[in-house]
Amino acid sequence: MAEMHTGVGRQRGAQPWPRPRRIATLSVHTSPLHQPGTGDAGGMNVYILEVARRLAQAGVEVDIFTRATSGDLPPVVEMAPGVQVRHITSGPLEGLTKEELPGQLCAFTAGVLRAEASRPPGHYDLIHSHYWLSGQVGWLAKERWGVPLVHTAHTLAKVKNAQLAAGDRPEPKARVIGEEQVVAEADRLVANTKVEAGDLIERYDADPTRVAVVEPGVDLDRFCPAPGDRDRARVVARRRLGLPETGHVVAFVGRIQPLKAPDVLIRAVAALRDRAPALVDDLTVVVCGGPSGSGLDRPTALMELASSLGVADRVRLLPPLTGDDLPALYRAADLVAVPSYNESFGLVALEAQACGTPVVAAAVGGLVTAVRDGASGVLVDGHDPVDWARTLGGLLPDRARRAELARGAERHARHFSWDRTVSGLLAVYGEAVAGHRTRLASELAGCSW
User: Fold this and answer.
1) Distance, CA of 294 to CA of 279 (rounded, Å)
2) Contact (Cβ atoms closer than 8 angstroms) between residue 165 and residue 261
3) Least C-beta-crowded within 10 Å: which of 26, 285, 383, 425?
């Protein structure tokens, strides 16, 4: 595979890249104001929110453009000093599926261009688009404004279709084409991991010199082990959430949809009951999240599955958690399971490890980077419930091994922070701006007036 640039690595160099004063962040289909774990809100929302806050702290103003989905919110919301969320009216205010949103891109683009037109010329120095829908808008805006476009895909249709969960719908051809167009037009492509960078280069024919690897981070102040004795902290966290104070707890955190594969965990518990019934009798599986995507087709399917497998009594559903409750859930668990069929990174895995909780994850996509196999957790090849049952059955009774992994999880998570992510992004932004200025100068020099 071709050599890939990394924004983090170049940030350490001596090159004084220019820093943008103000950027337009595009997030068409989901807002950083939405609660992660429901609808289309997930890790991307967290990413945009955390990055914007820290960019503003570094002196870069951020305007986040997203589709208006409620009349209760004003057109502009100050999310933090230096960060504004701008709600663009495009289509009905009620929620639309991602499949319906391409029909509203013209209206959304018009709203973005109209907002910029009300400002002095050159208001934005750079556009950062998130997900392919936003990339389509960014592609046009960059041409109209004469600024560089940086794009982060977060997920890729060709990768998702190659690793499709049973019964899930493949991504449409229109999305594949749209992604190919954005990859070709963006000045820089930010990949969360080297795996994703390789996918961009090999599956989408991206120019390797325009691909930068900048890993996401975790809020190490919010997601951290509780002070004092770990066992005591686990009991306190369980009591807070109304979970059994004794016995084992395995947690799943995320949107309930085939891609995230919570059903794999449920099937694994059923398989584990066949081989170690006493262990399962002392186990609580917490599923924290709401139906999303194709999971909305059958929102009660997960509990119906648990009932049909005879393990419904072992499963506890919790809504998406906010504030200190989410770190409490991570601390309450003996293990956090991330059985997804694909993840561009896997922020849940990183948050859990930052809290000192080992992760059992599928060996796919960014999870190979987010989890250090054998040191901070265990990676499972494939999604066979028997393999997952074998892994869980080996770890849950082995207190010493789990304690060792917990220490490794905390150490591993310390290598990731949002400040590190923003340093890498600023390097990528600076390079994009410098490259754009160089091209303009070259074009002007070649003009004959």
Assistant:
1) 33
2) yes
3) 383
318 dihedral zone (left: phi>0; alpha: psi -120 to 50; beta): beta
The CB density around residue 274, as the number of other CB atoms within 10 Å, is: 10
Residue the block writes with tokens 């709203």: 111
The answer to whether 370 touches 346, Cβ cutoff 8 Å, is: yes
Q: Tens place of pLDDT for every residue, the chain, 449 residues?
A: 333 444 433 333 445 678 899 999 999 988 888 765 555 556 788 999 999 999 999 999 999 999 988 778 899 999 999 999 999 999 887 777 778 888 899 999 999 999 988 888 889 999 999 999 999 999 999 999 999 999 999 999 999 999 888 778 899 999 999 999 999 999 999 999 999 999 999 999 999 999 999 999 999 999 999 998 889 999 999 999 999 999 999 999 998 989 899 999 999 999 999 999 999 999 999 999 987 655 445 668 899 999 999 999 999 999 999 889 999 999 999 999 999 999 988 999 999 999 999 999 999 999 999 999 999 999 999 999 999 999 999 999 999 999 999 999 999 999 999 999 999 999 999 999 999 888 888 777 766 55
For 390, counting Cβ atoms within 10 Å of its Cβ (0-12 exposed, 13-18 middle, 19+ buried), the class is: middle
At 226, phi and psi to the nearest 5? -70, 145
Give the helix/strand (H/E) hosting 57. helix 43-57
**Nearest residue to 344 via CA among 5, 1, 43, 39:** 43
Q: Could you tell me which of 186, 181, 178 has the C-alpha nearest to residue 152?
A: 186
Give residues with Cβ within 8 angstroms of 400, minimum separation 6: none
**Within a 10 A sphere around the Cβ of 134, how many other Cβ atoms?**
30
Q: How far apart are the first and last CA of the chain?
A: 44
Task: State both tokens at 28.
Answer: 């068409």
H helices of 242-300, in order, are: 262-275, 277-281
Find all residues with CB under 8 Å of 133, minimum gap 6, and list them: 28, 29, 98, 101, 102, 105, 178
- Distance, in Å, from the CA atom of 124 to the CA atom of 284, rounded to the nearest integer, reads 50
Cα dist from 73 to 22, 87, 245, 266, 404, whole Å: 24, 8, 41, 38, 47
> Considering just the CA atoms, what is the radius of gyration of the chain in Å?
22
- Report phi then psi at 129, rounded to 5: -100, 145
In angstroms, the CA 186 to CA 320 distance is: 34
Angle between helices 325-332 and 230-241 (to 10 degrees): 120
Q: Note the Cα 427 to chain centre separation in Å.
A: 21
CA distances from 155 to 131, 190, 366 (A): 7, 12, 10
**Alpha carbons 367 and 263: distance in angstroms, whole number:** 18
Tokens read off for 32: 């950083």
